[in-house]
């Protein structure tokens, strides 16, 4: 806690002068380009990994980067917090992109994979139910990358399942179909610091290096025309 408190002081004294004008503008409105959905894990820091600044990302974090699917009427089958963030991002902020980002060594994915019943956490058990489809796919269809540890194989598949859950929300489905919204699946390897993006053509997560980034940006630009 001391590190957290002193970090606030350091920001106030050293960084705030650089951001003062930006915060002044952001106080009036925000126009983020993307909704970034990722895990609560302390090792995953979106603004650091993407070199973004205040106002760039609308971020939603929870255990396991899970998105409870919606009913045909658009009502969440799980916690309202996630559904509210999705609605706000799409309807009010009008983001053009939604990214679901999983990561390696995810505690949530380890719990789902081992089905550890010893941990007395009934709320966590109910929450992790939303990753069961990913576990089913891993068991019956196999991993995207068999070189990874089983819980990391699950983590990658979980990203794809949560993207499918996103598409159950009518507002998301409508915007994607209209070409106004793009969904992307990313995966962060903590050990190497590399970020990967899912490529449908290769059915694999590929590292986002400069060449990959240029291809991704070109695709986004072609969709915007």
Q: How would you explain this protein's 3D organization?
A:
The chain has one domain: 3-Layer(aba) Sandwich (Beta-carbonic Anhydrase, Chain A), CATH 3.40.1050.10. The termini are far apart. The protein has nine helices and six strands. Strands 2-1-3-4-5-6 form a six-stranded mixed sheet. It has 225 residues and is α/β, with parallel strands linked by helices. The longest helix is centred in the N-terminal third of the chain and has 25 residues, at 2-26. The mean pLDDT is 94. β5 (194-199) and β6 (204-207) form a beta hairpin. It has helices at 2-26, 46-49, 80-92, 107-114, 122-128, 132-141, 150-166, 170-177, 210-224; strands at 34-39, 57-62, 97-103, 182-189, 194-199, 204-207. Its cofactor is Zn(2+). Its EC number is 4.2.1.1.
Descriptive key words:
alpha/beta; 225 residues; Beta-carbonic Anhydrase, Chain A; 6-stranded mixed sheet
CATH classification, class level: Alpha Beta
Please bin the fraction of helical residues: 40-55%
Q: Tell me the fraction of residues in β-strands, as a range.
A: 15-25%
Write the CATH fold name: Beta-carbonic Anhydrase, Chain A
Blueprint of the fold:
Layout: H1 2-26, E1 34-39, H2 46-49, E2 57-62, H3 80-92, E3 97-103, H4 107-114, H5 122-128, H6 132-141, H7 150-166, H8 170-177, E4 182-189, E5 194-199, E6 204-207, H9 210-224
Give a short summary of the structure:
With 225 residues, the chain is an alpha/beta fold. The protein is built from nine helices and six strands; from the N terminus they run αβαβαβαααααβββα.
